[in-house]
Design brief:
Chain lengths: 200, 463
């Protein structure tokens, strides 16, 4: 019976794990350096607005510092359980492309920032995979400090430990950088490339 | 039933320890859930405190209920039932003690890690990555301890409870390792989502569900004092679960970039699971026939069968909500939250609390200090849960349609607000009920020992 139990588990693993996973593995896997080679405009903007905290946290605003901020932001996003109230994929139904932006495609998740994936299963707040550029850095800083300052009906908690006094600290800067990065890759060219890959 | 040898068959003190620890974690979980609900009502009692941030407290709520409450209680049930059904004790009394402390260590480390910001981004597996390794060791020790008496019966035909328990022992380590390691270290993005979907569902379907049904197949005939209605149906239910349940995981991520063929497959197998579930439900309600009066006179029987009614509703609901037209609207909404509470509390929570109502007096060797409090808990929990389910399901429908109709996001929050207030109120019913239960357990254990033992079955053989 133990054999049957393991057998059925393996069968399911093959059908609902190995098959889709190996199918998706045909898409190119990228490191963070490949998907985020240069600092984003928002990251450079943070360096100008908060020069002292920024220098203390990340030093010069170069590619390395950018990727360090992204990883830290992603880790903080996980630690705070953000992913329990925000999803990170846009579905092709329910007018989600009109609300959030381009429908998600498999290739955009094939990099180290989605190991583990952060799809999420609940939306108390909106989806975030197309968040990049939707709001200004200032908006994000105010929003993390006290969400009701910019969204009066919000039920999101305050994240005062992202701040030293009134300026964002390392965690705060990293979170804003991460928010502004999510979906920055969803350009028309990237979509066209994804369509070609899907045809393979 | 008990073989009263020099070395007692059943290790009562350790069962008592697991039940007590599990119930303590239930209270932790309930308060965490209550606080998180208050955040939605914008009444969070500890705003601006990093270690008590609502996002972290939410993970404490789910992990404490799954790994602290349900697993502890189920370990107690395994320790009670398996030696009785096999006639052999667990592998080692020393190992039983080691497992108890190891598992409480794992749960406590998880709780502290989550509050300290060390969560892992695996739903139902937020256990910090460091703690994962210890959890795997703990599970393997439990498997060895419980499998030993089962292996000694080789060659004899086993009762259906042992089928479920045996399968669970095989599946649980596999499920845990698959879900906590593959998407974390090896499989990124949509592929990882397919695996975590499998993990979420297998944890419920291949660990908790077999434990629950194994427990029901043992306690229900015992309390009804009649055999199960159809052993053919119980065998069908077992193999149906074993075949279809593991195939359903991807239904947690419909319309995601996981290949559509896998999503369609998950939908078909989910519907198949519900058909299997009906056979099990029919079997139990046919067994109840002629003993329905026990629903009134026996509180454990009432917890069990009301839990089965919730199970039936959950599964019927699941057959619909797993289809794509439903998913367009209800996915990501409070509908799913209602569903999760109905399963985790309404079904498995009710079953283990029923089991506890039956076992606790036997474990502490005293009758319930005040049986009326147990009844109060039943009604408070049932009313609270029914209110919560109706409320959150309705909230989900409202949210889903408002989202589809492109209402401004904040408008959808304002529309949710009355539902969230109602949910907080429903939660206080459940918290109040379980506090009464805890109070009753405490005073029962502390009350003076009865002069005469109420019966051989209740005599504290090992205590």
């Amino acid at each position: 019976m133990a054999t049957a139990g393991i057998g059925l588990f393996v069968l399911a693993g093959v059908l609902t794990g190995y098959l889709p996973v190996s199918h998706l593995a045909k898409l190119e896997y990228k490191t963070l350096a490949e998907v985020a080679p240069d600092p984003s405009p928002e990251f450079l903007d943070l360096a100008r607005r908060y020069p002292e905290p920024f220098r203390r946290a990340f030093g010069e605003p170069n590619g390395d510092a950018f990727r360090r901020a992204l990883r830290l932001g992603r880790d903080q996003y996980i630690a705070e359980g953000c992913w329990h109230c925000h999803s990170q994929y846009v579905r092709p139904v329910s007018n989600e492309d009109q609300r959030f932006g381009k429908v998600s495609w498999a290739g955009e998740y094939r990099n180290e920032m989605f190991l583990p994936h952060l799809f999420g299963t609940r939306r108390v707040g909106p989806d975030l995979i197309r968040e990049s550029g939707r709001h200004s850095n200032d908006w994000h800083v105010a929003h993390f400090f006290d969400p009701t300052l910019v969204a009066p009906a919000s039920v999101m908690p305050r994240y005062t430990w992202f701040f030293d006094g009134e300026s964002p600290n390392e965690k705060g800067l990293a979170m804003v950088t991460y928010m502004q990065w999510l979906g920055s890759w969803a350009t028309p060219e990237a979509l066209a490339r994804a369509e070609t890959e899907a045809g393979k | 039933m008990t073989a009263a040898a020099a070395e007692p068959l059943v290790d009562r003190p350790m069962i008592k320890a697991h039940v007590a620890a599990g119930f303590a974690f239930l209270l932790v979980s309930l308060f965490a859930g209550m606080f998180y609900a208050l955040q939605m009502s914008r009444l969070y009692p500890f705003p601006g405190i990093e270690l008590l941030s609502p996002g972290r407290v939410r993970m404490l709520h789910t992990n404490a209920v799954a790994f602290g409450f349900l697993i502890n209680l189920f370990i107690g049930v395994l320790y009670w039932v398996v030696p009785r059904l096999t006639g052999y004790p667990l592998l080692s009394r020393k190992l039983t003690r080691v497992i108890f402390w190891a598992w409480q260590g794992v749960v406590l480390a998880t709780a502290i890690g989550l509050l300290a910001g060390k969560a892992q981004a695996i739903e139902w597996g937020e256990t910090p990555r460091m703690v994962d390794h210890f959890a795997v060791v703990g599970v393997l020790l439990l498997v060895v301890n419980v499998a030993a008496p089962m292996l000694r019966t080789r060659g004899r035909s086993a009762y259906v409870s042992l089928w479920y328990f045996g399968a669970m022992l095989v599946w649980t380590p596999l499920v845990y390792v698959m879900g906590n390691y593959l998407p974390q270290y090896f499989i990124p993005g949509a592929g990882g989502a397919a695996v975590t979907g499998m993990y979420i569902h297998d944890l419920v379907g291949l660990s908790v569900t077999p434990l629950g049904w194994g427990m029901m197949y043992y306690f229900v005939p015992l309390l009804l004092e009649k055999p199960i209605w159809s052993h053919t149906l119980s065998v069908m239910g077992f193999w149906g679960l074993a075949f279809f349940y593991p195939l359903t995981g991807i239904h947690h991520f419909y319309y995601s970039p996981i290949p559509m063929y896998a999503q369609y497959g998950a939908m078909m197998s989910t519907i198949a699971v519900e058909i299997v579930v009906f056979t099990v439900i029919i079997n139990f309600f046919m067994t109840l026939r002629g003993r329905g009066n026990l629903l009134r006179s026996s509180l454990p029987v009432r917890w069990f069968f009301v839990g089965m009614v919730f199970y039936f509703i959950t599964c019927l609901q699941c057959a619909f909500q797993t289809t794509l037209p439903f998913q367009r609207i209800i996915h990501f909404t409070d509908w799913v939250v209602a569903h999760a509470h109905m399963v985790m509390f309404g079904v498995f929570g009710f079953w283990v609390i029923g089991g506890l109502t039956y076992l606790w007096p036997k474990l502490v060797g005293r009758p319930w200090w005040n049986p009326a409090l147990n009844s109060w808990n039943f009604w408070l929990s049932t009313i609270g849960l029914v209110l919560m389910i109706i409320d959150l399901t309705a909230a989900g429908v409202v949210q889903g349609f408002m989202w589809r109709d492109l209402a401004q996001w904040e408008k959808t929050l304002l529309a949710s607000m009355p539902f969230w207030h109602t949910r907080s109120i429903a939660g206080t019913f459940i918290v109040a009920g379980q506090l009464l239960q805890a109070y009753n357990m405490w005073l029962t254990a502390r009350s003076p020992a009865p002069a005469a033992s109420p019966g051989a079955e209740a005599a504290p053989a090992g205590a």
